[in-house]
Each structure stands twice: as C-alpha cells, then as structure tokens.
Amino acid sequence: MIDKYTRGVEAVPILDITAKTTAGAFFKIWIARFGTPSKIKTDQGCQFESRLFKALSHIFGIKRILSSYHPQSNGMTEEWHRPLKAALKAYNTEH
C-alpha cells in the first residue's frame, strides 16, 4: 500500500489474496495505524471487487477508484514493485 501524497509504503506479507485476507490487512495495517483514507485506488482484482471489500469501503466512507486494466495506469505502485521483487528474490536465493 502506498500513500500517494507522502509516498509512504507499507508492504506486509499475507497468506493469500482472498477478499477476507485483503480487507483484514487493509483494516489492520492501514486504517488502524494511519486512519481512514478518503479514497483508495485499486486494480480490478476480485478481492477488491468483493462484497466484503466494498462493504468495508462503504462503512468507512472510502471512495474507491479503479485503475484501468493496464498496470501502467497505477504507475507509482508498479514502480515500487520492481525493487521489492528484486529484494525478495535476492533474499530467497540467499536463504
């Protein structure tokens, strides 16, 4: 998760990308620590399109903005993924 304005990043390991896990991580990692954002931008993954995630957004009054199908439309996140993936790959090969 990336704060667009501060460019603060929170990367946390999760066991899977189900709606329950994703919504729980969003609540515990972001909302509980930093407060409720006024809006979030997500891709069109089924975990973000789920009734659970939509309900969470509605309850907290979060406006959901969907990025287009192309990863380039969410450039800040994609840009940050490259070094994260490289670091994880390096860590994995060392251990």
From TrEMBL:
GO molecular function: nucleic acid binding
Domain called Integrase catalytic: residue spans: 1-95
Residue ranges that the Swiss-Prot or TrEMBL entry lists as coiled coil: none
Domain of life, source organism: Eukaryota
GO BP field: DNA integration
Family matches, as PROSITE patterns: INTEGRASE
Protein's UniProt name: Integrase catalytic domain-containing protein
Organism: Trichonephila inaurata madagascariensis
Lineage: Eukaryota, Metazoa, Ecdysozoa, Arthropoda, Chelicerata
